[in-house]
Amino acid sequence: MKKSIRIGTRESQLAVWQASLVQQLLKAAGIESELVYIKSEGDIDLQTPLYEIGVQGIFTRSLDMALLGNKIDIAVHSMKDVPTQPAKGIVPAAVLKRASYKDLLVFKGEVNELSPLTIATSSIRRKAQWLHRYPHHTIENLRGNVNTRLRKLAESHWNGAIFAAAGLERINLRPENSVELDWMLPAPAQGAIMVVAREGDASSLDACRALHDEPTALCTQVERDFLRTLLGGCSTPISALAVIERNEVHFKGNILSTDGKQKQEIEKKAVVSAAVGLGRAAAAELLQKGGKEIAEGIRNGGN
Fold it and tell me: What positions carry a catalytic annotation?
């Protein structure tokens, strides 16, 4: 076993919190570690909308390079940021127990949904779902880490902004003027944390084994299989949620056009022991019932 494991992390408060959690869990297992800070492309360009800069892997690529370059031993990611096809030579080491998967709206003043509101988000998924429900509203781009986005919201003319509940709650920044969007399906794997390591690095992989939560791993695999079968990238308006209830995996998923005007959704369930292929099956069925036309429109750069 290595004397100390080098944990790679982005420099944002949330990323450091997540890496520190992994460090604490390793310490509880008797394993020493240190944090190594890596700046990501997604943290450098805070102006361009994510869907215009090839978002897939933008928050993980720098850590992947550090991992493959042997500058770190493991990397900690928000799992929803991890591409469904990992970089060659990098493998999952652990999926931590999931926190809240919900999105929430942080609002300013009185919010009347019937009024023409301006809502901020950089997520094409959130934008599409919001415009599908409120086509008379305006969506504006909002980039940056959690702290930066909260500050930009406070200084702006916007009526509100959409955040992942887990991100705000983990660093105790969830404002009182926020409400969970129970109608909005989350990004695949939202609320989960993934640890990755170099393929063949047995000591790091062994060290992370005790951190792994199998129910979360199963549910997020179903969600990410759904995403990958439909389009494969996270810069698309695809949502998915799998939860375990009474030994069954209950799955909901949807795909929307980027302007929110078209939507196809699906629900399926399977017993836990037979749920591995549930996401792929749901995606195949959704493509047959109209999702294919929406997916092709997205691929071709249309709405």
Answer: 81
